[in-house]
Amino acid sequence: MTAVIVEAVRTPVGRRNGGLSSVHPADLSAVVLNALVERAGIDPSIVEDVIWGCVQQVGDQANDVARNAVLAAGWPESVPGVTVDRQCGSSQQALNFAVASVAAGHYDVVVAGGVESMSRVPMGSAGTFEGSPYSPAYMERYNGVKPNQGVGAEAIAEKWGLTRNDLDAFAVQSHERAAAAQDAGLFDHQIVPVTTPDGTVVSRDEGIRRGSSVESLGKLKTVFKEDGVIHAGNASQISDGASALLIMSEEAAARYGVTPIAKIHSVAVVGDDPIIMLTAPIPATKKVLEKAGLTVDDIGVFEVNEAFASVPLAWLAEVGADPARVNPNGGAIALGHPLGGSGGRILTDMLHHMLRNNIQYGLQTMCEGGGQANATILELVNAR
C-alpha cells in the first residue's frame, strides 16, 4: 500500500523560558493532535497509533509522552501511543516508522510527530542519573572520547575549511529568510496557536532575531574552543514546540474522503562517525537519492537541519545543491530546535513550501546523536 500525508501542523516554536514554557509537553502535543484531526475532518477514534518523537524522556516527558498526549487531547482511550528516540531526528523517524507500517498494511491511519519542552526538561536531563550511556566497551573503541556535538561542529568547520565569517553569514541568512517568511504569512497556515495556562495566546515563532548581522555575531564568545568558530549565534536555539502529521493509506484516504497532499517517495537512515557526529546527512542524502532514482537537480527544496551552521555548509560542499533551495524559509538557527519535535516541524514547513510553489520533490535530512541521519523525500500529489 502507498502511504500518503493528508495533513501537517505545528505549534509556534517558543524560546527557552518563553511563551510556551508554562505548557506541559503532553498538553503541547495535544494541541497539534486535535488540530490535525479537526483540519482533516476525521474522528480521532480511527487513528490506530500515535508515533511520537521525544529525546529527553524524563520528568514531564517520561512514561510514554505519546500516550499521555493522546489522553490529554481527550481522544478515545482506545487510541495507543508510542514514544521513539533517534535524538534530533526523532519525529522524522516517527514519520518513517508510520509510513513503513502503513505500507506493510499494519495500519490504515496513523499520526506521526513529536515534542520537546527544553524549558521544562533541559537538554541532557536524561543523562543526569547515576551511570553513563557510554559503556566501557564503547569508550575503549573510541579511545576514551565522549561525543560532544559542539566539538563535532568545530571539527566539521576545520575539516571543510569553514571560517567563522562563513558560519556567521549563514546564520544571518537564516534569520533574514525566516523573518521574510514570517512577514509574508508563510507560516500562518501551518501553525496552530497555543493558549497557555494564563490565557496568553502564542501564535508566532519567537526565535527570529531581526537585524542580526555578521558584525554583531562577531562579538559573541565561542563556546567549545577558545580559538574556534562555533558560538550561540551560529548554532540552533534551545526551544519548545510540537508537530504532527496525519498518515493514511491511499485507500483509507479515499474511504474517509480526505485529499492526500504528498506521498513519501523514499527514505533512508545511515550511521557515520559518532565522534564528529554531525556528518551523516551527507551519506544519508546520497543514499536516499540513489534509492529514489533521483538527482540533486530533481529536488526543488531541501531542508537540512541547522544544528550548527557548519552542518548544512559542509553538506552543501559535498552534495552540490543550489543554496537558494536549501532552507528557503530559514532553519533552526532562526526558528529554534525543539529536539523531538524538530523533524516534524521541518517536514511541515517543507510540505507547505512545496504546496505554495508546486514543487514535486522535497528532501529533508537531519544530523542525529550517535553519528546518524535520516533522509526523507516527499513527492507532492495534490496542490491546494
> What is the first-to-last residue Cα distance?
24 Å
Largest sheet: 10 strands, mixed
**Which stretches are poorly predicted, pLDDT < 50 over at least 5 residues?**
none
Quote the beta fraction.
15-25%
Structure classification: alpha+beta
What's the assembly state of these chains? Answer: single chain
Mean pLDDT across all amino acids: 96
The DSSP helix count reads: 12
Rg of Cα set: 19 Å
Principal-axes shape call: globular
SSE sequence, one letter per element: EEHEHEHEHHHEEHEHEHEHHHEE
Percentage of helical residues?
Answer: 25-40%
Please give the number of β-strands: 12
Descriptive terms for the model:
19% strand, acyltransferase, globular, 384 residues, 10-stranded mixed beta sheet, two-stranded antiparallel sheet, 12 helices, alpha+beta
Descriptive account of the structure:
Keywords: Acyltransferase, Transferase. Its EC number is 2.3.1.-. Belongs to the thiolase-like superfamily. Thiolase family. It is an enzyme of class 2 (transferase). Residues 4-251 form the Thiolase N-terminal domain. The protein is of the alpha+beta class. Helix content is 34%, strand content 19%. It has 12 helices and 12 strands. The protein has helices at residues 25-40, 65-72, 90-103, 136-141, 149-159, 164-183, 214-217, 250-255, 281-292, 310-319, 332-335, 339-357; strands spanning 3-10, 14-15, 50-53, 81-84, 109-117, 194-195, 201-202, 239-249, 262-271, 301-304, 361-368, 372-380. The strands form 2 sheets. Strands 1, 2, 3, 4, 5, 8, 9, 10, 11 and 12 form a 10-stranded mixed beta sheet that branches. Strands 6-7 form a two-stranded antiparallel sheet. α2 (65-72) links the parallel β3 (50-53) and β4. α1 (25-40) crosses α2 (65-72), α3 packs across α12 (339-357) and α9 (281-292) packs across α10 (310-319). It is globular. The two termini are 24 Å apart.
